User: Fold this.
Amino acid sequence: MSLFTPTASWVTDEHHMFADAVSRLLQDEMVPNAETWIENGVVDRAFWRKAGEAGIMGGSIPEEYGGVGGGFGFDSVTLYEQGAVGDVGWGYGIQTIVMHYLVAYGTDEQKARWLPALVSGEKVGAIAMTEPGTGSDLQNVRTTAKKDGNGYVINGSKIFITNGQSADLVIVVAKTDKEAGAKGVSLLMVETEGAEGYRRGANLKKMGMKGNDTSELFFEDVKVPADNLIGPEEGQGFYQLMKQLPWERLLIAITALGCIDYAIAETVKYTQERKAFGNRIMDFQNTRFKLAECKTKAEVLRSFVNDCIGRLEEGKLDAATASMAKWWGSQIQNEVMHECVQLHGGYGYMTEYPISRLYTDARVQMIYGGTNEIMKELIARSIDT
Ligand SMILES: Cc1cc2nc3c(=O)[nH]c(=O)nc-3n(C[C@H](O)[C@H](O)[C@H](O)COP(=O)(O)OP(=O)(O)OC[C@H]3O[C@@H](n4cnc5c(N)ncnc54)[C@H](O)[C@@H]3O)c2cc1C
Assistant:
């Protein structure tokens, strides 16, 4: 199983070597522990640090901040390999998003202060956009950041925040000007350790993705220095969010592909072993046709994902194409999981079989990162110009 298509022009020998190293680390350190993380509802901090030590977290982060200094292709490899061992608990995708906000908009001081710790796994990042009253309609966030002396005071609450229990660094989307609509939105970094007025809600109980901590976060007069504003001036938040969305959307499709490859491999194994009416389940034409359909969907997605990674590396991935990757990838993932559960029969419904977990894990991919309806809206806008 591999992310790469044979003809993808962005792929180098380094990417292949990196993929081998990531895969080894995940087999050794993730696979044996994933069940425990699911039970605990959170990935061990020790794993974050091991991933950092192995150098797999800073694929696209400049070397001066501890990274590998490559492009998005390296992050893509890590995310694919994670899916390909059937894990969605480790919130590495969010960690890359936080790092890329800093790379793109952080001051030199902010980069030096936060990036090395995010690359090494010493600190875990989160991005807090969604609020109880505002999800898709991001412009209408209620959280405020009011200028106060040489800093800001943040008030508000966020919900469904990935890595919410673990996060040391939270990028908070807040209104610095309530009257200015999208132009009043800014991004501020909250350093959670010892932050007065900052509170984590419960680790939310979810249908799937149970190894990840997803939380409500509360901000009650939380003070941050003016230096924690991401970017040179206030009011840039919405623009910054929009500019980073192509990666956030593509990474969902990459994870989908990894999970699909894993699910198909598990289902092939199962249907080769299980017998009914004296035959292997694999010998029924229905099984062969369903798996042929799943495999075709995976290969079409692989080609598209590779094309999108190549475009992103060249700075040419537009919002509409990234939205296509997100909705299509997550849609195909859900279709494949549905068929793979069916081919497992009753065992596919039992949590001891990985396919049942992959099925419930897949559902949220159609919801977060912008719902698939919002993706279609964005694509439609690019048609109806
Ligand atoms: C497990 C999980 C992890 C998450 N992680 C994060 C995170 O780390 N950070 C973060 O900020 N958020 C996170 N989210 C939040 C996620 O991004 C939002 O749930 C999502 O954007 C949808 O917002 P909502 O839940 O408020 O739904 P709503 O916006 O209320 O939407 C409800 C329904 O209405 C539809 N709808 C809304 N507007 C339109 C429209 N204009 N046209 C057509 N249909 C529309 C939606 O598609 C959806 O079907 C996470 C969510 C989950 C479940």
